Amino acid sequence: MTKKSVESMVRKVDTVELVKEYLENPVFKDATLVQSEILKSIRHVLDEKEFVELLPVTVSPITDPLNHPHFEAEFEYYGQKYSVTKSMILHKQVAVLVHKKIYIVSPNVRLETEDKMDSGRHLFDFVQIDMEMLEASREDVFDIMEDAIIHTIKTIKKKYPDIIRKYHPSLKTPSKPFKRYTVKELKEKYGERDYEKIASLNADEPFWMIDIPLMDREFYDKQDPKRPDVLLDFDLIYPEGFEEAISGGEREHEYEQILKRMKLKNTPPEQFEDYLAVAKAGILRHSAGCGIGIERFTRWVLALDHVEKTRLFAKTPGKHSI
User: Fold this and answer.
1) Where is the Aminoacyl-transfer RNA synthetases class-II family profile domain (predicted)?
2) Which end of the chain is more exposed for a tag (fewer CB within 10 A), N or C?
3) pLDDT tens digits, residue range 110-150?
4) Rounded-to-integer distance, Cα 238 and Cα 301, Å
């Protein structure tokens, strides 16, 4: 796709009208209040569980290759090529060698294609809280993130009852443990296409979608040694049609297995030379973690039709922004 053809698709935005909407439409004030509390509440739970907060990495020679169509955001600086961070997954695998439990309020830039414009769920500049734990399983991640979500919902409903009544009066505080469904189970029940969306529409509480098919994720996602056709990965799915909330899993850390997974995914190893060097030296260890999107969490809590209403200066695929 040429630059000219991409520009022709871009939906124009009137900057003055957008600023007026920020000032006149109460949804932006309400959403940013709730979003601030989401950040505080998740941080509170992770801090209580003795996680160490690290600073985000915004540019790097390596970043998540992603598993779907997108544009690259790359530049060269003093002879070295950098990418804008799509996620800190590869950095987290190293960071947990320094501190066993870490989290980052991490900005991510993913230049999604314009077909994501009206999904309601996509921004190309968004924030997630990334967490990772050394020598942990996905069940360990479930336990902590369920606590974080339950605490956050309880706190928001207590602190901003009028806002919740206004936007999402039926919002339930989830109960623990969240239900778990394999991808196979969901496909058998709802069909091969749109099974995630249909399952979300039929749910009244968040649930974990587990056992992601091998080819659906990236090389760093750990292949289940007992069931090699699936990964020890997961997504958290919001109810009421709001879909994906969290993505995560256990991580590959053994050099030969990472190479095997790269080959399966047609990922060029030369793009990850530094990462592979660390793996080959035997430095990486088993870990598990996830990222929870802050804008999507806000959207679900307030039952909004699009994540661009959850923040100021939102960047929606295929639209001009400020």
Assistant:
1) 101-317
2) N
3) 999 998 899 999 999 999 999 999 999 999 999 999 999 99
4) 10
Taking the C-alpha atoms of residue 293 and residue 233, their distance in angstroms, rounded to an integer, is 17
How many CB atoms within 10 Å of residue 193? Answer: 9
Bond preceding residue 56 cis, omega within 30 of 0: no
pLDDT digits (tens, 9 = 90+) for 229-269: 999 999 999 999 999 999 999 999 999 999 999 999 999 99
Please check whether residue 117 lies inside any domain of the structure.
yes
| 55, part of any domain | yes
- Name the residue among 231, 221, 220, 218 with its Cα closest to residue 276: 220
Residue 266 lies in a domain: yes
Q: How far is CA 34 from CA 7, 156, 197, 269, 299, in A?
A: 34, 7, 25, 42, 10
Could you give the number of structural domains in the chain?
Answer: 1
pLDDT tens profile 267-320: 999 999 999 999 999 999 999 999 999 999 999 999 999 999 999 999 999 988
User: Over 70: is that where the pLDDT of 7 sits?
Assistant: no
Range of the domain at 40: 15-175+249-310
CATH code at position 291: 3.30.930.10
| Cβ neighbours for 188, distance < 8 A, ≥ 6 positions apart | none
Pairing of strands 52-53, 101-109: parallel
133, 140 contact by CB (below 8 A): yes
Does residue 75 form part of some domain? yes
Q: Exposed, middle or buried by CB within 10 Å (0-12, 13-18, 19+), for 95?
A: buried
For residue 3, give Cα distances in angstroms to 6, 8, 10, 71: 5, 9, 11, 11
Interatomic CA distance for residues 181 and 210, integer angstroms: 6
Instruction: Judge if pTM exceeds 0.85.
Output: yes
Residue 88, token pair as written in the block: 């800190």
> Partners of 71 in the beta sheet?
111
